[in-house]
Amino acid sequence: MPIAPYNNKCSQLGCKAPRSKINSFCISHGGMDNIETRESDSIYQTAAWRSIRGRQLSIQPLCQGCLSRGHIASGVHVDHVFPWKHIGKQAFTRNLFQSLCQSCHSTKTGQEKQGKYDHYSKDGVVTYTKHDYSLVMHRLHTAPENLDACC
Length: 151
What we know:
By secondary structure, this protein is α+β, with helices and mostly antiparallel strands. It has helices at about 35-40, 45-60, 65-70, 85, 100-110, 135-140, 145-150; strands at about 75-80, 95-100, 115-120, 125-130. It is about 35% helix and about 10% strand. Strand 3 and strand 4 form a beta hairpin.
């Protein structure tokens, strides 16, 4: 009796690297093994993250992605605009944050695999790349009120 083939290659188009243990991508395209998953999950249990999350949801309780499209939904996820796993551990607490619903968060996470980091605002969506992180952080700390207008 025939068996289905086991897919052991990365799902990124054209990549021949072996996939990770957790998902269908290789490590360089966003895949993780069990050790990385446990380490990255534990950082979300810290007091620093609970403080950041609570502050963000109290400032912006609605989904910024939905609001940018004229809809109203509760923000249940606090999203790092620049994924800290792509930037470095310092970006876990030093980042732009936005409140998102489950649907918008999933959509944004899918875009991150392509190196596109969406920041939703009242004026629409601004798409950043990994190389914009230091410039945006500099502008955020020197003139935070002008961030949406300048970037």
